[in-house]
# Entry
Amino acid sequence: MQPNAMIQTLKTLKLHGMAQAVGELASQGSPAYQGAEGILDSLLKLKLLSVKCARSATK
# Structure
């Protein structure tokens, strides 16, 4: 997932502080961000999936 997509996803999940941090670290090319990018991508995808499942279960 591209940094812009991660930022939008974090904002959708109302994680604005994390969205700001990802934006800053990605723009700096931070080694910490680069190392965590894959993990963050996987966690965001799983969180979106869990939100979708929770919404469909309540319908």
